[in-house]
Amino acid sequence: MGSKYTRGCCGWLIVALIAALVATAAMFAIMKRKPGGRHIKPLPVPGPPGAIDSKYGDALGVALQFFQVQKAGKLENNQIPWRGDSALTDGKEAGLDLSKGMYDAGDHMKFTFPMAFTATVLSWSVLEYGDQMSAAKQLDPALDALKWITDFLIAAHPSDNVLYIQVGDPDLDHNCWERPETMTEKRPLTQINKKTPGSDVAAEAAAAMAAASMVFKSRDTTYSDVLLQHAQKLFTFADTYRGLSSESYPKLQDFYNSTSYVDELLWAASWLYHATGDQTYLSYVTVQNGKSYADWGRPTWFSWDDKNPGTQVLLSRLNFFGSKQISNAENEGLKMYRDTAEAVICGLIPDSPQATASRTGGLVWISGWNSLQHATNAAFLSVVYSDYMLSTRTAAVQCSGKYYSPTDIRNFAASQANYILGDNPMKLSYLVGYGSSYPKQVHHRGASIPADAKTGCKGFEYLHSPSPNPNVATGALVGGPFQNDTFVDSRDNAVQTESSTYNSGTLVGLLSGLVTTSSVVQSFT
């Protein structure tokens, strides 16, 4: 009896086990068929760059031209017929040559903070997608634009604890409407130092030069080394002498009012770790300061002011690809960055349970002023994150119980790019020079004034003219639509028609990520 009972029990166990396996298999089959709630199979790792998507390739070529439009200084191989040399004496009062760099937007100010951010994201774009840029024949223009900014940053950092953060007086500048080639008003310099600190700007400049040092490492070792030395010194300066530039110089609050500097410190240290491999920087962002500074678990919007989402995605790269030298404590910190990055992504995918409701019909929309900034930045981070997933065969992210593949995330990024390029209720390309219909009255001094006009400082008739700009600011990404998807193409409507250099940095990255598909490198160095 005992042996018979044992055999019967075992038989029932086997039957039960088989039934459980069948049920489990059925459950997974159902999950696979159910959108957003499925078990997703990992996609194959892409190989080298494939076929070029002509839409994104053409748009990338257009977008990169805006950096040529915005250049200051003595121009080299100028391809913009209505632009010429300008700001040649910038920095002269301090015995420096600050003639290079780029004008911030539709005016002629040089603000180091957003300019450095432009260089950081442009460097990031090249590091992730340089092979794809090359396949689209757009890598050289990107490198040229980047070096024009980093040359300025090097010149603006003449000693360890001094950085020039502004060229020009915004009140004087905005009181004039003139071409940059003919401006004659004074262009005073503003610096941060030990007594008047600006950790936000110094750290952003450090991030830019650390990232750019990796871009140029295989192209010009000497220049790369110079950039890295400046980056390390600027980070030490920013971390040692702490303070906000907008508190040291309250007038900055009317233009680039940075709300914190700890996000820039984390951002800079992250780039320095990638550039040097020095564990000190990794410990800084994870063990020492991650919990205090990183806002783990709280997704925010990536911008010239808030670098946290960018840092979260950038450090996720280390968690995706791994490193033998990383300690358990550092890995725990990296996991928190990645978890927060995934929260950012979950907030962007339209049908995610965590999706932000702040949208137009199809565009992420956060602010009426320069509304395309946040959509472009969010889409850039999304395409980068989706490629990290693809390159490591990570099947999905989970958003409150629903699952989304790299393709889902990439589709969101493409939807934002497509909206910008004309797939919107206005049927208007917000990228000037792309497509057949785009804004004709961009709020931009140089574009609005004929190249042979003699206006002096007071050329305001061109600001208020109802006529299209005589010069096309090719590649300008204008401010963008209101939340109801409307857009008023008027030069006086700066909220919607002004373009900015930093918008173009992430747009180039977004388009470079979409122009084709390839696996991203496991390490930048």
From TrEMBL:
E.C. code: 3.2.1.4
InterPro entries: 6-hairpin_glycosidase_sf (IPR008928), 6hp_glycosidase-like_sf (IPR012341), Glyco_hydro_9 (IPR001701), Glyco_hydro_9_His_AS (IPR018221)
GO biological processes: cellulose catabolic process
Keywords: Carbohydrate metabolism, Cellulose degradation, Glycosidase, Hydrolase, Membrane, Polysaccharide degradation, Transmembrane, Transmembrane helix
Domain Glycoside hydrolase family: 56-511
An MF annotation (GO) of this entry: cellulase activity
Annotated transmembrane regions: 12-31
SUPFAM superfamilies for this protein: Six-hairpin glycosidases
Pfam families: Glyco_hydro_9
Recorded superkingdom: Eukaryota
Record has 4Fe-4S as a keyword: no
Protein name as catalogued: Endoglucanase
Source organism: Zea mays (Maize)
